[in-house]
Structures are given as structure tokens and as C-alpha cells.
Automatic annotation (TrEMBL):
It comes from the Eukaryota. Residues 1-136 form the Integrase catalytic domain. This is Integrase catalytic domain-containing protein. GO terms for biological process: DNA integration. GO terms for molecular function: nucleic acid binding.
Amino acid sequence: MDFIKLPETEDGYNYLIIAINHMTKWPEAQPLKSKTAADVLVFFKSLCMRFGYPQVLITDQVREFCNKDMDKFCSVNGTNHRVMSASRPQSNGLTKRMNQVIKNKLQKTLEARHKEWPKFVNRVLYSICLHQPRST
């Protein structure tokens, strides 16, 4: 899981939280007005309710991901929370690459309407899923 900082919208959204299934490369994302630990936990719980509890959760060391509530939720549900070093972004390379892909596709889709990005997140995710290499 990771965040992308995007231009603030009229509705107050300025972050996109992203999660990727490392096996299937399937991305999930949600616009956020703030990046709090509570927002992250709500997003993660919604993913778990839709797709099941992952065996492993990979995140950076930021406080929004590394806190007692997230630790407790992962522990109770059998998820191993692996925290990657910020100084080694390649340790979470798939997520970092997907962040760039999503950001680039949003920019190309929006052009002059860059403050309307939350309306286009699902379209961009759909486009990414349609164009996955057949080997995945």
C-alpha cells in the first residue's frame, strides 16, 4: 500500500491510496481528503471484506501504515505486515511502479481538468487491468 499526492480538488481530495495484489498485479485505489491512520484502516478493511485477508501486507514505514490499530487488525486476521525501508524504494518496487503508471494515466486522461481526478480513478484502474500482460 502507498499514497500518491495529487492536486487538491474542489471537494478537498488530495491523496490517492493504492493497494496492489502482488500475485495478480490487480490495483485498487481510493481518493482521500487526508492521509490518516484511520483512513488507511478503513480502506484496508474494505479491501479485506471484498477480497479476503491477505497473507502479507507490504508498506512503507510511515505512521499512517505503522500504528497500533493496523498492527492489531493484521495480527487478529493473520496478516504479516512487512515494513519496507524508505531508503530502499526498490523493496516495494511493484507498488512504486504502479504509482507512476496511475499518476501518468490520470495526467493523460485529465489534461486541463487535473482537479477532477477522483472522477477518473476507476476508469484508469480499469484501463490498467485491461492491459495487463497475459503472463500475469
